[in-house]
Amino acid sequence: MAERAIMKGNEALAEAALRAGCRFFSGYPITPQTEVLEYLSWRMYEVRGHMIQTEDELTGLHMLLGASLGGNRVLSTSSGPGFALFHEGMSYLCGCEIPAVLVDVQRLGAACGGIGVSQGDYEEVVHGGGNGDSQCIVLTPASVQEEVDLVQEAYDLAEKYRNPVIVMTDAIIGQMMEGVTLPDFKEHDINKYDWVYRPLKTNEMGKINAGWPGRSWTEQAKHLREKFASMQQNEQRWENVQVSDADVVCVAYGISSRVCKEAVKKARAKGVKLGLIRLVTAWPFPEKAFAEISKECKGILVVEMSIKGQTVPDVKLATKCGLSVYGYFSVDIVPDADIVVEIAEDIIAGTAQEV
Amino acid sequence: MLKEIICAGFGGQGIITTGILISHCAFETGNQFTWYPSYGAEMRGGTANCTIKISDEEIASPLAKEIDILVAMSAPAIDKFEANLRPGGYLFVNSSLVTDRKYRDDINVVEVNTTALAEEAKNPKGANIVMIGALIKRTGIMTFEGCSDAIEKYFTEHGKAKFNDANQAALKIGYERF
Question: Which domain holds residue B22?
Fold first, then answer.
């Protein structure tokens, strides 16, 4: 039976993975995602799965790769500095077409940075998944409930496309508590798929060979192009809030999108027609969401906790550079709904500066 | 109706747990809520704090600039957050530690001698629960019965059912004296 509970985002994510049938975790703790390992350290045992704290993130990903190849639903989680070490494994997962669910709970800054909230990993996660034409699907939850819902969906997507799926969240969504409804437990049959590696049995194992395809690169390229195109066509997810008549449309994800939702309410209360496109997938980028924008729209306002405004190029592509794009990039401070409204008013008045 | 609350005090005073208990009360009384902690260098000695938002509607950001209620268990907590209170807001002061202090005159100040009341309730570790009792009585944001059930459920689920009677006594004394 579905259960209501109070949980932190990180714990809810871990519990949701178990309820989706995940029975293997390998990875390494790092703030602000440590609650995932802390939770699984006792909870994985209760569901008779395996939780291994590896010596580093790199090993975590490679151990997970083997477990997934054996048919398990697998999980590894990290944050910025640790997620950087995921990339070799991500490339292997993509190259060998092995499903996996990975998580980046974003934190502040390059290098070791700080443990506070930020959204500086967009380009790394969305466009820099690994060498050799790697591409992951990227989901961006904005609440504890959505952590639960999207983790469940991540496993289905990972298997549907035989591709890693990344859940990209942030220090606030990961560490805040909200009430959630947890889904029922699903059984996952590790022999469900014919591509699963089975020792001493005949299968197409020869085709899973460290990223070297068991066919010509021309054929492999055609296959992957078709797979990526299918993801782009079928897996865009977004939430539009009062977009159709908006003079200014915010584009945001995660914690920033929650602030924008509040800003839309505040703006509308004073007659400013503000809307919001909230990304639920960052890859594929939800281009379809932009079709609802009216011809009278004065511009797009990208709200993101980063230095560069990393969503901007994707927004420009989605609008075919047909709309002015403005930015509010708050880096280490959660954006302020009142400032979002002020900038929207400046855009309408023609006094704001484009990015 | 959105209510924004900050609980603050010294690290180790059970401030984070107080916020969690208030969250459970909100949840069990049918409200939406968010709870967000402030961790880090503030963990020991300095001011630990957490922000709770309670509403019957979807809550945007879990952080608060202006607040309706401040639960202050220490003097530095008042220094840091009194200015954030909206006019007409409530400041619950732990008067077991903080005395002889001037406050803003556009807010409601409720001085709660948490230590003495907790001892009177025969629950010397229940100072925070006394505070919650006073809070729900004076602000009326949640019912006593709802909070009583929520707190009992919380401690039972955390394997501390043996403290249920003492915790209920602490909640009740806080509620009845204010």
Answer: 3-176
